[in-house]
Specification:
With 108 residues, the chain is α+β, with helices and mostly antiparallel strands. It has two domains: 40 residues, Pemi-like Protein 1, Chain: D; 47 residues, no CATH class. It has three helices and four strands; from the N terminus they run ββαββαα. The strands form two sheets. A two-stranded antiparallel sheet has the order 1-2. The protein has a two-stranded antiparallel sheet with strand order 3-4. Strand 3 and strand 4 form a beta hairpin.
Length: 108
């Protein structure tokens, strides 16, 4: 389908036909990626990106059960710059299991 490019401020604009917009599932205000390949322009809906929280990932791992849990690798004690001042975990005073336990306020 052919469309005409028009001046829009200091830029050029492309008006998309209703049928194309509906077929692509776009609405006013939708963001699209513009891909330039040689002398061709392509528009596509951006790939959705979802941020994952560590707590969500750990919960999903627990939901899948121990058969799907990766093995824990013991790398030995921290050395040099790996040891952080005031960090009980890096000094070996507490374990990862201690960090994952719910605290007194129940925030974890």
């Amino acid at each position: 389908m052919k469309v005409r490019i028009a001046k829009w401020g200091n830029s050029l604009g492309l008006r998309l036909p209703k049928a194309a917009v509906e077929a692509a599932g776009l609405i006013e205000g939708s963001e699209v990626d513009v891909i330039v390949e040689g002398r061709e322009l392509r528009l596509r809906a951006p790939v959705p990106f979802r941020r994952h929280l560590l707590a969500d990932l750990v919960a999903e791992m627990k939901r899948l059960g121990p058969d799907n849990e990766p093995p824990t690798v013991e790398w030995g004690p921290d050395r040099g710059a790996e040891i952080l001042e005031g960090d009980a975990y890096s000094r070996g005073e507490i374990t990862l299991d201690d960090l994952m336990k719910p605290d007194v306020a129940g925030k974890r």
